[in-house]
Amino acid sequence: xxxxxxxxxxxxxxxxxxxxxxxxxxxxxxxxxxxxxxxxxxxxxxxxxxxxxxxxxxxxxxxxxxxxxxxxxxxxxxxxxxxxxxxxxxxxxxxxxxxxxxxxxxxxxxxxxxxxxxxxxxxxxxxxxxxxxxxxxxxxxxxxxxxxxxxxxxxxxxxxxxxxxxxxxxxxxxxxxxxxxxxxxxxxxxxxxxxxxxxxxxxxxxxxxxxxxxxxxxxxxxxxxxxxxxxxxxxxxxxxxxxxxxxxxxxxxxxxxxxxxxxxxxxxxxxxxxxxxxxxxxxxxxxxxxxxx
Length: 293
Description:
Layout: E1 3-14, E2 17-28, E3 32-36, H1 43-51, E4 58-63, H2 72-76, E5 78-81, H3 93-103, H4 109-118, H5 132-145, E6 150-154, H6 162-179, E7 182-186, H7 190-196, E8 199-204, E9 207-213, H8 214-220, E10 221-227, E11 239-245, E12 249-255, E13 266-269, H9 272-280
Helix pairs in contact: 4-5, 5-6
């Protein structure tokens, strides 16, 4: 597997607080990777480290084979759209495109102007007069026209209404299909990630809790319901992600690569949202499970 991002023992500390801790991760190239976690989990910190906007307190990170922001050539390989989809309110769309061309050696002006035309935007219009969805599309256009090998999107649709969010994600998927690059998309909206992502990383309590291809994650997680039982009595290959109990019944969400033979259990499938929530709710004292391969 070729990795577009590799982290080894990566950590970032602000004062006495670790925003990201002991992050070891391989993000495969050529995928649309969803990064999900609760507020304060470390998502923006990880992406800012990947974009070279922050330096690690400990550990190492490489992005598309180099150290983040290490020179003009490395900067050209990575596109970054922040959560507030930054644009310059007083500049027109045309001025944004001219600025992009001056700052980016791989700039594809034809791609940028074609996309603006397909969106029905007026090149003479100032960014400050655009709707939130239109500003997000302009920011995405600037990121795409940079022709990066990796495009990093930090919750770019968080403030958009459902229609604008759908249009943004549709535009992203069309661009991925046409130009073949890697994407890391951070969001707290699992339904959006389920729509566009084929690989998932869950961050919680400043650590990676699980990572893997979405299909593999779904296939390897199960909900077990049956007579009350202590988690310690489950087979060693059934790793407990979450558990709940009544006086007579136990319910476990487990990860296992093997079959479940115990006839006492009713085995149910787990949806992506339930899987993500289970990892987000894991107790901090529990060690993260190994990534699904």
